[in-house]
Protein: Lrp/AsnC family transcriptional regulator
Organism: Mucilaginibacter aquariorum
Amino acid sequence: MKKTPIDKTDIGILNALQLNGRISNRQLGSTLHKSESAIKVRVQHLQEAGLIKRFAAIVEPKLLGRGLIGYVQVIVERHTEQDLTAFMEKAKALDEIMECYHMTGAFDFLLRIAVADMDEYSKVLMKKLGNLPGVRHFESFFVMSEVKNETAYSIGE
Amino acid sequence: MKKTPIDKTDIGILNALQLNGRISNRQLGSTLHKSESAIKVRVQHLQEAGLIKRFAAIVEPKLLGRGLIGYVQVIVERHTEQDLTAFMEKAKALDEIMECYHMTGAFDFLLRIAVADMDEYSKVLMKKLGNLPGVRHFESFFVMSEVKNETAYSIGE
DNA sequence: GTTGAAAACGGAGCCTA
DNA sequence: TAGGCTCCGTTTTCAAC
């Protein structure tokens, strides 16, 4: 069905496609010394195996009215399965929450919020995050400047 | 030179390309009621204007030996420009640091680290993060499970 | 690999503000 | 008249055999 082990060619494909998701199979083949068809089936397999989740255009939120990025640490009231899953379901549904992780340590969830400005953040915090179920405590931290934001994992193997 | 205002067609293009970066111009045109050529020049303009930063394959780090994600809060010794820029330059150069933000509030930088496992994290912390210049304090938090990780900003205008 | 289909590219001409 | 569009021929890429 699918090949689990990854070889050097797959690594080359993954590294290249992470940097340019629109590179042609032919061009990939010429740098990796494989035929276009060989590249094609490998890319398909990488997608079916879930190594490539999707192809996406990476946009600049600053230029699209989502320039304020905040990270929010969340502590919930009780750590029952119902409460945790209820929180997670609601978090997934909110457009302003770009990322949500269940964390180890001093807090339970870490959220990445993207909004236009502090006015909107204030509204989101009160009207939306405030209504998330079972929350005991929020603490917000804001991004002043983005030093690095890399989507491409450098794969060496 | 370039068109700053974004219209409804651009919004449609951006929303679609964020979800599928490999959708064809022709297909985009048919849903947005424009010709293939019109879509093509708009996508070019969106790239030149920096609204689209790049196209990328989004991969699954768990399947690529980068399954442990940690967030690290960093407090630096002094907030001089030299110290801050020195830290940022070094952070940018480290492959394990996928994201680095200069933050407001109780700590100075937030790092997203992707490594294979706790053994590797321990080494990275001591050998690499420990050598970042001017650091006073680290605090690490780890992702137990990823509830949501969205790269597509929903653009409404 | 080869071949037919599909998509991208690039230019000419049209329409509108 | 400049910007944006459509139309269409050419080149490149895709996809199936």
About this structure: Chain A has two domains: 8-48, 61-142.
